[in-house]
Amino acid sequence: MVPEFAAQLLNDSPFYQGAMILIISLLLSKIAPLPRNYQPIVWFGLLAKELAAKVNHTSRAPSQQLIAGTLACILLVLPFSAIMTFLMQLAAFPWFFEFVTLYICLNDENFNQTAIEVKQALYQEDKNRARSILSPWLYRDTKELSEVGIAKATIEKLVTTPVYGTVSTIIFFGIGGAPLVLITRMIKQLELCWPPINPQFSHFGKPVYLLSTLLFIVPSWLWNISIAIQGGPQTILSLLKPLPNTQPLHNCINTCSISARVLNVELGGPMKFNGIKVDTTKLNHGPKPNADSITSAIRLANTTYGIWIFFVISMPLIWAGLRYLHS
């Protein structure tokens, strides 16, 4: 029985190796993240902004802006993903490139530490410091954010980041390996850099937005369920109710709504982009958030993250147990 089980483990070694790469990447991104200024995905976002500044002309016809946005997306995503896929195919140790790819795609997973710093600044009534800490993480105006606005932005970032971080990495790595994780993460970064909710990118960013919406339907749905189960039956049932959205080009609105219910706070509301006010759905599920609400949001995000980590660790253990019983 034991030799047969050992042979089965050996045959399944690619599965266990992939599981180990995924687990170590997820944990290391939390324990020892790269400084934001050294993160390749952040550099990719800066490149996307520079390209948009040259090819996104809002004075042109909407159809021309749509074409420009589509071509810009292809130009940015295709070469980098092709190079990484090529390296993984030729490398003597492809697992190393897979690990590095997953690690850099999980760069936003260390936002928890930023949220703690923002919370501490609010406790000290230093709104300017809180805004400066939050600013590099957001693609909207932060200079005029009130204490409530800072708390809302921090909570919304906390609860939405794992959709394109932890959850999507687990799902897409299982489906198509590290290359698929990289491609989807780059597309999401383009959506964050060119949000169509921003009037400047209302047409230019729409192709990327629609593609990102399609790709992240399942990760968003699964993450929302993970949050909703912590809010009780009513919160779970709210997943089935359509959400009235006055701003359709806003992907994270459903996740924010579920989180607002669980945290019993108000989220959403107006945003500013380049000084232009944009109305979004106000999610009135409780009082306006403050620094204490950020603490609750951190706890919620950590608990939900723990659920997913437990899932990833348990899968190879369950598989090995089934193999042992079968042998």
UniProtKB/TrEMBL annotation:
One of its GO terms (biological process) is cobalamin biosynthetic process. Keywords: Cell membrane, Cobalamin biosynthesis, Membrane, Transmembrane, Transmembrane helix. The chain crosses the membrane at residues 15-32, 66-92, 163-187, 208-229, 305-325. It holds the Pfam family CobD_Cbib. It is a multi-pass membrane protein. Its main location: membrane. It is found in: Cell membrane. GO terms for molecular function: threonine-phosphate decarboxylase activity. Belongs to the CobD/CbiB family. This is Cobalamin biosynthesis protein CbiB. It comes from Shewanella atlantica.
